[in-house]
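Cont'd.
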Amino acid sequence: MSIWEYANPKKFIATTTPLVPWLLGVSIALLVGGLIWGFFFTPDDFRQGSTVKIFYLHVPSALMAINVWFMMLITSLVWLVRRHHVSALAARAAAPIGIIMTVMALITGAIWGQPMWGTWWAWDPRLTSFLILFLFYLGYMALWEAIEDPDTAADLTSVLCIVGSVFAVLSRYAVNFWNQGLHQPASLSLDKEENVADVFWYPALVCIAGFVLLFVALVLMRTATEIRVRRIKALEARMRS
Amino acid sequence: MIPDLGKYAVEVLTAYGVSIALLVLIVGLSVQRSRKVRAQLADVEARRDAAR
Amino acid sequence: MIALLRRDLALAVRAGGGFGLGLAFFLIVVVLVPFGVGPEAALLTLIAPGILWVAALLAALLSLDRIFALDFEDGSLPLLATSPLPLEGVALIKGIAHWITTGLPLTLAAPALGFLLNLAPSAYVWLFASLALGTPALSMIGTFGAALTVGLRRGGLLMSLLVLPLYVPTLIFGAEAVRRGADGLGAATPLLMLAGITLGSFALLPFAASAALRVNLK
């Protein structure tokens, strides 16, 4: 029994379809729970006031925005090496979720930045690299849309994803060099000292878990959709001939 | 009901509103597309079976 | 490989589009900016490095879709792919040819356009050096973008969307080098980074570009 068995589209659909409603349910429960916990039952920060509540949305979405791209990189590599169609389709299915997460991180950040820094937007390294990440997602999705032949599209987007990852990392260091920012350093390092206080931390953990599960549920669902779309095309092509 | 949000109430509520709207949007779009494609596939498969 | 380079250069010179159009575009962008931001000399001095770099980048972008499109249309690209020359080598040569026809003239013309924007006198050397080091990376990254979109109708717009984010690091280090040079600070670090990006792209991107070409020619 190896993980590659799930690369069979039929098996993938059969295994994941019953899972999706459960995952979706649990993730929504976690999100609702975490957000209610964060929104109603945590104190205000003594300097930031109630804006600290944006934390529960901003941090998980920012985390997901990066990790979705990372997941796309891995599935793209799997497609290029092992030629499993499910893998390529999973990358395609993940991209729109990633772009939504990026937009969410940018918008919540802007709303948070307005009262705290006195500006909606600053050309700060972290903000700028998220904007660049947004552009990468856009290009990636546009390339998928533009190419008709599915295998060609999968190949080219995979290559783009790999090259894009290298340049995304480069850009991250380049903007660091270019401007010192307003943004605080990572609040989620494993080093306990640097973390935010526990009161804010536990609800945030629940929210992060909710976001991750929501992403997993959506990716499984959307991948199954992509598989079906491809099957429809194949059947129609066969009937026409 | 809503806790005292102080002077930042507007910001916090917009952030929550926008984020939840975005989440609902992506979930809704995925579910809707999934349903549509499923129906289409069932339709195509039925036509194929009829043709055979 | 040399023969291919000669052929590409000869074609570019004879068609005339390569040199002329890119340079003219560069000139027009640089001329338009003062109309947009106003004629204050101090302001122009401040923003000149960035404008020159952005204009050079756009001018390089303009001619990218010609890299493979012409060869693809007349069928010589599949011939090149089946020739004994490795496709990686073809991609590399295409990148170099693009640089000689656009990047090099841009680099040579940039100091002259610096006068128009009232560039600080100490920055001319750095402008020239950063463009000389950075534009090859622009050409090579662009070759990769062109290889990705070669088979597409209306690929030009899509290619801009794909290539421009990849240009970010080059642009940042290039413009930063000129800015630091203008302020009399040490510009060695950004220049070294720029050279690193250029060498890295020349070492790795031909492989990515040829992979994309193979897929598109399949």
